[in-house]
Amino acid sequence: xxxxxxxxITGQNAASAVGGNSSTxxxxxxxxxxxxxxxxxxxxxPLNPMQNAELTSQLAQxxxxxxxxxxxxxxxxxxxxxSSNQLLQATSLIGYNVLSPGDSLTxxxxxxxxxxxxxxxAVELPGTASDVDIKIVDSTGKVVRTINAGSMTExxxxxxxxxxxxxxxxxxxGAYRFTVDASNSGTTVKxxxxxxxxxxxxxxxxxxxxxxxxxxxxxxxxxxxxxL
Length: 228
Known about the structure:
This protein is an alpha+beta fold and 228 residues long. It has 2 domains: 11-91; 102-195, Immunoglobulin-like, CATH 2.60.40.4070. The chain is 29% helix and 35% strand. The protein is built from 3 helices and 12 strands; from the N terminus they run H-H-H-E-E-E-E-E-E-E-E-E-E-E-E. The strands form 2 sheets. Strands 1, 3, 6, 9, 10, 11 and 12 form a 7-stranded antiparallel β-sheet that branches. Strands 2, 4, 5, 7 and 8 form a 5-stranded antiparallel β-sheet that branches. A hairpin with a 2-residue loop joins strand 9 and strand 10. Helix 1 packs antiparallel against helix 2 and helix 2 packs antiparallel against helix 3. The radius of gyration is 33 Å and the shape is elongated. The chain starts with 10 loop residues before the first helix and ends with a strand.
């Protein structure tokens, strides 16, 4: 009686058969693999039996497949745990003012007989700038104040505006923005405008944890330079 040769059922094919259904559990996968392996051993050609090295190789492949599945499951759990921790940490920022990229400033009408409240913001530079000019612009695009900040170092540099125009008069309450021109020995230095805004809410989305600011804009945790 002829014995059919099933040596074509290699470890790779067995592993593929086990891993083909992503919904199959690790235990089921191992049982299927062992069943295929036993079938292969029972139907092997007596004149050309499976070598120890080949058997060991197939078992190693099964172990690798099982290990990868467990590793993926572990990594998925770690990612979910990290996201949850970030969300919990971010909620502690609600109600705080954070310094993040932005160029908007808002002034309020000062109380009678008092000076207007100073506006705090910042400029972030990738390197030293020997000459930094900051222009405060109103809603019509008119420059109401030019601040010659002089030199600034690499990193975040704090700036304050007293709420007055170039003539020393208090500007009307409302929305303003500022622009930054920075250079070092005639070479332009790219500057990032930073402003303070209160955190209103925290959201978890596909892009990760985001902070919703009172201004209506959304920023990521990595955008926060400072909070107070």
